[in-house]
Structures are given as C-alpha cells and as structure tokens.
Amino acid sequence: MFSHRIEGQRKDNRPHHRCKKTDHRKGDQGDFSRSKEGKSQADQRSSRKPDQDLTAVKLAINILKRSDVLVGTVIGFPHGNNRIEVNVYEAELACEDGAVELDMVVNIGKVLSEDWDYIEEEIKAVDDVAKKYNAIIKVIFENDFLPEDKYKIKLCEICSKLKVAFVKTSTGYGFMKGEDNKYFYKGATDHDLKLMRKYSSSEVEVKAAGGLRTLDDVLRVKEIGVTRVGATATETILLEAKKRFNE
Predict the structure, then answer these.
(1) Could you confirm whether 168 is annotated as catalytic?
(2) The pTM is what?
(3) Does the annotation mark 97 as catalytic?
(4) Closest to 145 (Cα-Cα) out of 90, 192, 197, 84
C-alpha cells in the first residue's frame, strides 16, 4: 500500500488538494505503515492464519487432499472479454497453483464478429498452457448469447482442430432479457447439445452446464452424448442416483 497519495499539480504549481505533511520516521498519524494498534503490515501478515494466504485453488486442493476429487478453475470468466495475454497469465497461475482443469470463456464479441483467427489463437494459447502442465481445458461457448447455430458449429470445428478436451455450453451467468423485460436463461438445451456433439470430433467431449437440476436431466443428456455435467444440484442428483440404482 502507498503511504501517501501523490496529487497532480496546477499550472501555477499549487497542488489540487492541500495535504497534511507527514514524517514517517516519527510514526505520526500520517504513517499508514502501522495500524491503529501499532502493528506494522509485516506484523499483521505474520499473524495471519495459513489458509488466509492460500488462493482458492490451493485451498481447495488442501481440503481435498485425502480424496480423489480433482480441482479446476475458470479463465476469462464469465464475460470472456479478457485479452489473450490476460487469459494466458490466469492459466499459468491456476496451473502453478495446482488446477488440472481450466474452463475458459471464449471472447463472445469476437465470435459474433466472426473473427475466427482471433478465437483460434485465444483457445490455442490457453490450451498450450494447460498441456504444459498436463491439464485440460473446456471451452465455454455461452450459447445463450449466440443467436445462430453457425457460431456454435464454427466453434466446434475450431476446438476439434485444436484437439481440446471439452466443449461446454454455458457459464451459468448468461442471462438474456426477453420481450417481457424479464431475464431468462436456457443453458444447456438438447438442441445445442446434439449440435455440439455432431460437429465436434469424437475425441472432443461435451459438457452440459445450465438448467440441469435432476437425475433425469443428467440421464437425458447422457443419451445425447454428454460426458460431463455442471450443476448446482450435485448433491441432490447423486443422492437420487444412489437411491434409484441401489448403490
């Protein structure tokens, strides 16, 4: 943290704001390097609990270390408007922290502009990082924002060319405003899932996310060819599966 703020100067060399001069050597009230209790920032950091310095990925790995559950995170989420360099940096940090799956959102504006060279470069850049760390990526299309199937088909073709691990329908945040001024969200529709399965190569898997809340929903999309599902009702679905299949 800066211990003081530098203000711009007027043409007559007078500052925009009058600021109280402080002498940090005296530790007076202008010295922000110490708290009201007299503890320095270094003291405060040393008194933090270990978990407070963990990233979400590291914390999840620490919690799940005695299980076989893998940890993933998101890149460019949920709007997909990061620069490619930012996505790459996010991916590097996530993989260094231990994430083994990265769900990245494509730049939706570039998709709608049909700037396919950019989209291919973006996906490849993140996938290259993932592969360097033996991780995988899932490419989120955000289908609710794509008004025609041609966009989804082209994305499937690019992802197949690059041999990414998964194509994915949605973020869960892509709400659209209807003619009645109410917001709605379709998420993973059967139409889109069939389309994505048809136009993706056999080595690219399909993940359905958004609107899947029951075991029957999961079984239905499984028949379409979906191999991964994202759902907030995971516990409910698993308990119903155990009950139905006596496991």
Answers:
(1) yes
(2) 0.78
(3) no
(4) 192
